[in-house]
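The step that takes the researchers longest sounds almost clerical: writing a folded protein down as plain text. Below is the pair of lines this work produces for a single protein:

——
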Amino acid sequence: MNAHDHKPVDHVTGTETTGHEWDGIRELNTPLPRWWLWSFYASIVFAIGYMVVYPAWPLITGHTAGVIGWSSRGAVASDVAALQAARGDMTAQIDAADLAAIRTDPTLQAFAMAQGRTTFLDNCAGCHGAGGGGAKGYPNLNDDDWLWGGSLEAIETTIRHGIRSADPDTRITDMPAFGRDGLLERADITAVARFVRSLSGQEVPDGTDLAAGAQVFADNCAACHGDDGKGNRDVGAPDLTDAIWLFGSDESSIAAGVTNGRASVMPAWGGRFDDATVKSLVVYVHAFGGGE
């Protein structure tokens, strides 16, 4: 054997070294365990087989289909088709019935509630909460305070066409940015904010000139909110005399709304859901407790 083939042995561990040395540190010759190597080789074989059997390689206009022709997208489509087939009869009945009939038919109502709940949790709960309780800027669906009405028909219109969405029939109205656009001075905004708080019986600072705020309100706000501040569902203007506030009832929140306006957006779901799903969602939302 060539003398150069002999590798030094580490005197501490008794293990032969590779002959490599860095700054006095010798590399021990300790190969990987045989079981580990065989596992590694097996994973390579498995990966090659997987790429042959299943979709794996991207192409210019698509991807390899795999020898069994399976895809997750196809599996989902198959499952959806099977679900639609299972629901077929009930879905057809929901399609043919009006909302009032669904509400009065126990079988249809049970089906609509089940489908509506699933649809709500998948698409609406992110904003309105799983129980419809809402959050700041997102309406509570459990109370009886509705900007656009809480009847079955009103809820259906809102769900189908959205609020300030791209749908041509969407519900739309805008609260002007009175401060940002220079329509009101800061003093006027403060005065009207305090007057609005007084409409719902909230405290205002001593010495507040409510008459000045009332005049600003009459000149700029009453056209939508009404002379008495009770709102107008035709334009989605909220009632300012109750204790329900979408963005907060403190003076700074009200002043911020007057300054910058309010223009929240709700998607139009009519183009995403079929009629049966929309009706089911309407029935479910109406049943939260705040429906009229």
